[in-house]
């Protein structure tokens, strides 16, 4: 029943290079290629798009998201 | 009257592998298989569904929830 | 006039095994059997009910409440 | 002009055993007998009443108030 | 151009014994005699009055204001 | 392309004695002579005016602004 | 798949001297020349413009943005 406990950080390491979805406080969703993160869960994404419960509204070549604003991080289904 | 004091973290360790319900600030509920957590109560779930006081609206293969957004964690009744 | 100063944590230790009421930020009330707590005031309750200023709406076999959401903890009158 | 600087904590020590009024974030007022406090300004009151800008609505034999919710503490006039 | 740098704490030390105005998060203003403060900017005032953008509504013999609620502190003009 | 990296604190040191504008959470703007600051970005201003998206509404001989309420600090254009 | 992991701070170092866009809590956007930052992600920008989901409304010769208000930082596309 208990699988290999990939601690959240190990899991994030494994997501590097993949496209992920990041939900922010306030409802924004950012999808992009996950490039790096640090101990505060500050995240670096590339080729990213920010949507707010609707069609894509903003594109970013790259951006740093401050960890304190992150609700969850997920590789798209 | 005082039972074995399974400290919250021991309790969470015992929930690993089980399906749990996580209530987030703002009212979202996420149900999924509890895979791991760290000292900040960042949680990793798999095969998860996020609902907002209504029918299931989002599915996730896996996701990391940032601990600061968590209100409570519970194995479903 | 000054009684034995049971520091808040000693008081909480003495409440273990009793039914307590926990008020959360946002107005939720959770009543349940108080099983354990840690240094962050993360609380573990069992046989718990969550109400929101009205009739009982949710039951939980057990749940961990994140300390940062707690407003007060009280043994019912 | 500068009186004996009773640091806030010394002042709180001197209030132990007295009835105090505690204002919480969100507007609740709790009056009760001040029994103890800790380094996080978590407070223990007994024989307490919680009001919300109106007639008394809740009584508590005893309760622990989490320090982060406290706005001010005062011995009633 | 650069005057004697009275660091904020030195300035507060110099205000002890004077009447000050304290603005709180949420818009409350408290005027009173400034008696002491600690490293968290918890403040002790005496002979204080709390107003909310209107006529004085509450008097306090003395009160401790929790530092995290303070926006600014000022000796009245 | 990369100029001398005047770290934010060095920059603030250089602003001492000048009139600055401080934007606070909630929309208030305070303009005044910048006298000092500490490691928490608590700021001391003199001869200050507080406005709220409108004509000047409050004057202060001097005031301490708690750092946690500050959004940005800028020497007026 | 995993590129050189330019940690968020390395990435920010590489952005120094470039024009960046900074999104703040509450919806403000500030564009300006990125001059420096510190360990709290306090940012110094020059020749900056602040907009609030509309035409440019404020210009700044230079400003320090307090890190806790930052949501994301991005070099414009």
UniProtKB/TrEMBL annotation, chains A, B, C, D, E, F, G:
<dbReference type="InterPro" id="IPR001163">
    <property type="entry name" value="Sm_dom_euk/arc"/>
</dbReference>
<dbReference type="InterPro" id="IPR010920">
    <property type="entry name" value="LSM_dom_sf"/>
</dbReference>
<dbReference type="GO" id="GO:0003723">
    <property type="term" value="F:RNA binding"/>
</dbReference>
<feature type="domain" description="Sm">
    <location>
        <begin position="7"/>
        <end position="77"/>
    </location>
</feature>
<dbReference type="Pfam" id="PF01423">
    <property type="entry name" value="LSM"/>
</dbReference>
<dbReference type="InterPro" id="IPR047575">
    <property type="entry name" value="Sm"/>
</dbReference>
<protein>
    <recommendedName>
        <fullName>Sm domain-containing protein</fullName>
    </recommendedName>
</protein>
